[in-house]
Amino acid sequence: MKKKMWTAIAVGFALTAILCSACTQKTADQDTGSKQVATGSAPAVWYEKYPEPVTVNIGRRVNKNFLKGEDCTNNQYTAWIKEKLNIDITLAFSQENIQQEMTLALATGTLPDVMVISDPLQLHQLIDADLLADLNGVYDQYASSLLKDMIASFGGKEKAFASAMQNGKLYAIPAMMPGYEYALTWVRKDWLDKLNLPMPTTMDELVATARRFVEADLAGGKQTIGIEISKDLAGIYSDVCGTDPLFNYYNAFPKLWIKNAAGEWQWGSVQPETKQGLEILNQWYKEGIIAKDFVTRDPYASIAAGYPGIVFGPWWIPVWPLNDTVANNAEADWRPCICTVSPDGKYRVFGNNINIAYAIVNKDYAHPEALIKLLNLSAEVQVDFDGKALSDEEVQKYDMQIPESVLHAYSGTNMKWNDWPTNTILRFYNQMIKLAKERIRMLADYKAGKTDGIPATEQTLLQNVINFENNTDRGMLAWQDYTRYKAMEAMLNIEPQLETRACYYPMSTETMQQKWANLKTMEEQVFLKIIMGEEPISKFDTFVSDWHNQGGAEITKEVNEQAEKRGQ
């Protein structure tokens, strides 16, 4: 699905729920190499090569962007893993079989050696079935300094791994997704120039600009959309065309569990601030600022066709889908801006679920440490892919020895972290901001002729930025590189005003399993009808009452009980 292309493109900041597994067959070679890991210096333990090959058979989605002659078991990553660790990666099954495999595992009590699952409910079902290995010991012994420092940046092991722990045992290594990919406002600068308008800097200016775009019908054929939005509306972290920036502006956080003043977790969709956001969307609908058919239209196709003048989305969307606008119209020029700072001076965002996937190991698997060692290498690759986000001293500290072939073989493709066998995001909490500062510093140095320490691939990117600024290269790649740098500048400008609202991401409760689907459907229907004027804004109050009476109150109680047990 094209909507999900961003997961592969955006420097690894969003996830696809891909399950990885390994076959339960243990070979003689595997058994021979079991636990034969050096106990000397720490780096040796992190990267000690197995004396005999260890096979990890993985079930996963097959990426179609491999280089010629490569596949998911034969590529730069797997070659480096073999050289470094003597681990062979083989393919067990494709993603289409994942749910079937999971159902079979729960029914038969047998698991593959290694899997990565995205559903915390499934994780705890596996824990209750006593199918998972306790990874406490192997993590403490084999996790590299880099990996441990990443975990420490999220508040330490106990906090970062809280959702994967039970009775003091660690049943999974969660992915670590930083909270710095808040949505920016993207505006067609070429349209601003045609109308001699400045870049908007406030919400009022943004709405006025959207009106002018529609009035002038800059897309032609009465197809112009002021602000393109998704019918999903909100609660989807870093979603393209989501309306979270609008709701967050009013301190509203629909479709999320947030804490109230009393410290209790409450469903954001039933809070009074959400009503205000819906009222504004209704006004936009009546004025024609948003599309009359936004419920059924494909916002990405609309962007490609050049219909909207404004969208909300994260820093990386020049790579997709905004590039589709430029591909179809060479004059199109999207630029980021900051328009959703609240009247009190806060740029509000919600804290995303840092644990969006869980790497688990069969309790009978002979090599639980193999998962940790794969994650050690994955952490190195992901940090370095982010534009040398570590200093030379830090690289030396972490004993990073990544071949250029691994770092840069897939530049310009969709292959990043998600093609690593464990398919797990690993980041420092502040890595995106650190990267932004580093790249902006490198750009200044490069312009001053200081190229020492700047990788060749980064210099190419920097030159693209300069060429676009100087109007010597207005091609797609130059535009993308330049625009992403401008987005990083915007993020750094926002940082002092940033206020992140804590959110809780619960496992399904007993009442949720019975009533959540109906409550969700009711919420979606009421919200869309209010926006489209089919119901008055007063319908929101009726909805809130119905939501509580039809199971919401009990679910809220269960969620708070669950959060208390998990220390959240």
The level of helicity is 40-55%
- Radius of gyration (CA) equals 25 Å
| Gross geometry | globular
Largest sheet: 4 strands, mixed
The strands making up the biggest β-sheet line up spatially as: 8-11-7-12
Which consecutive residue ranges, at least 5 long each, have pLDDT under 50? Answer: 1-41
**If you consult CATH, what is the topology of the largest domain?**
D-Maltodextrin-Binding Protein, domain 2
What would you call the structural class? alpha+beta
Q: Could you say what the CATH architecture of the largest domain is?
A: 3-Layer(aba) Sandwich
How many strand units? 16
Percentage beta strand: 5-15%
Total count of helical runs of at least 4 residues:
23
CATH superfamily of the largest domain: Periplasmic binding protein-like II
Notes on the structure:
It contains 23 helices and 16 strands. By secondary structure, it is α+β, with helices and mostly antiparallel strands. It has three domains: 2-178 and 354-419, 3-Layer(aba) Sandwich (D-Maltodextrin-Binding Protein, domain 2); 184-351, Periplasmic binding protein-like II (D-Maltodextrin-Binding Protein, domain 2, 3-Layer(aba) Sandwich), CATH 3.40.190.10; 508-557. Strands 8-11-7-12 form a four-stranded mixed β-sheet. A three-stranded antiparallel β-sheet has the order 3-14-6, with helices on both faces. The two termini are 34 Å apart.
List keywords for this structure.
single chain, 568 residues, alpha+beta, D-Maltodextrin-Binding Protein, domain 2, 3 domains, 4-stranded mixed sheet, 3-stranded antiparallel sheet, 16 strands, 44% helix, 11% strand, globular
